[in-house]
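Please, structure for the following, as tokens.
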Amino acid sequence: MPSSASPLNSAFVGEIGVAREELITPVGIYARNWGAATHDVAEGIHRPLTVTALALSSSGDAPLILIGLDLGRWRSRDDEWFVRGAVLDALGLDPARVLIALSHTHAGPGVYREDLDKAGGKLIAPFLTAVRDAVVRAARTALGSCRPARLSWRYGRCDLAKNRDRPEAGSSRYIVGYNPETPADDTLLVGRVEEIASGRTLAVVVNYACHPTTLAWQNRLISPDYPGAMRELVEQTTGATCLFLQGASGELAPAEQYVGDTTLADRHGRRLGHAVLSVLESWPEQALVFDGVVESGAPLAVFRAEPARSSGLLCAILQPVELTLKPLPSIREIEEQMLQCTDRALRERLWRQRGNRLIVGDGTVSSMPLWVWRIGDALLAAQPNEAYSLFQRELRQRFPQRPVAALNLTNGSAGYLPPQDHFGRNEYAVWQSPFAQGSLETVIKTAVAEATRML
């Protein structure tokens, strides 16, 4: 794993632009994100949801567009493509070169247009259209504002994320909540975009893995959860736009969560924000290279400052990964169970199972997309599922000298990807996932192979 606040002597130098759009979310929209909730619609706004776009361009290459979007998850391929397809059409880009990564807030509005008949459901389609338009505007603005800039990276740490696969006392079941007995991946990756002409910081990229589940069934407000306050703190301090990218957080969440108190979400956000600022404060002006030993009262290691390496290379690969599905009920069988179910929470589980089945299909194998980007010397791997942190840990271990960003819930949503040794447990992520044992390892193996091919 990367050492705390470890420097990485590399940077992408090219044309970079950033843009931000605020989503106007209508109060009264369907917003039932929790099976335990007793309400269906949003009654107010805690913090606005946002779209943040980063455009990367280099001579001779088509641009890469990286977008952070404050939504929870997609319930259908059509709704996701309604937004992403519009960006591809507007900019004339190949699907390999656009990523829309969800923050995974659990306090967002519904975006499933099939929920039309639910309370507040009539507001979903107009809201999704507004989301599409905002994403397109942000992407266009970011691309149009590109200027000579440098994107460099540095690792840090933040202990907000804790393991949430907790064995239940006196039972074989695992419950979803803070497990202090199992260490959590607390790696934080920070990117800084610096304008070459002025030295001004234009953008801060934050890749961190932690479920935004502070606000739960008691909450009735639209909120980005902790990323909102994190962005506010970083932006107020640096004057730069902050892009949040959810990492491989399948088993990671705050220890203190499941509340209706928005002040806790803000505290969590500031906690992460201060960790980001600490990394920025420790940023070296130049790389330090060992230059020998001076004998004094002690043998002293001497370092010299050298400019960081730079590269204008941009590469993008979109690689389908064939994943075996578990034996699952068909969509029709799930719908029949729903008709007979009177328990509100259990019906919610069936509804989500139906959504997963619609996305992966009724067959025995599902083709899941995997994106691997090379940005200078840095690597970025993104996929639509909720991978456990093994995804990012393995990639960073395989490429220790390179910054590695790992993204969940990108360009779609499907199910969890737990490690193969979790199968056989009575665990939410295992029984929720439509994928068979070994699927996460298959994705990791493919990501490593594609990244290696780029280098």
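The chain has a mean pLDDT of 94. Residues 124-144 form the longest helix (21 residues).
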